[in-house]
Amino acid sequence: MLNGKQKGDANIEVLKQWIASKTDEDFRQIEFKGKLKRKEIAVECGFALPPPPPPRVMVRDLVEVFAREPADVKAEYLARMARTAVEKGYKPGWVGFKYQAKYGARLSRGAVDRAIEQARSEASCPGPNQQA
Q1: How far is it, in rounded angstroms, from Cα 85 to Cα 95?
Q2: Distance CA 93, CA 6 (A)
Q3: Where are the beta strands (DSSP E) in 1-74?
Q4: DSSP one-letter string for 54-117
Q5: Per-residue model confidence as pLDDT tens digits over 68-124
Q6: pTM here?
Q7: How far is CA 128 from the centre of its chain?
């Protein structure tokens, strides 16, 4: 088993042999904008290619996807953010900001206030499995 330095030395030797076997015309064939195409060199020399980069996902693309969610899913998200705000003492504007960041639509102050009041009433009333 070769260590990293030995693998590097072996790769350099392979590259030197590849360079020696090419003519000026061969280099012109794999040139693009004044630089050699590294991918073609790697393929011809038998080097492993790095994995392709992960696809870039833009925030606006996610907002478009989330905006298509049904109203009940959006309402549940609003209620969950309101519960978090009540539990952690966040201001109502935080709830509106989180909703807008996810769905790209602003909520009225009344809608946020109603969600906060609902979360406060749920927090003050013990549930069926909780003791008073």
Answers
A1: 7
A2: 60
A3: 31-32, 35-36
A4: PPP--HHHHHHHHHTS-HHHHHHHHHHHHHHHHHHT--HHHHHHHHHHHHS-PPPHHHHHHHHH
A5: 889 899 999 999 999 999 999 999 999 999 999 998 889 899 999 999 999 999 887
A6: 0.52
A7: 39
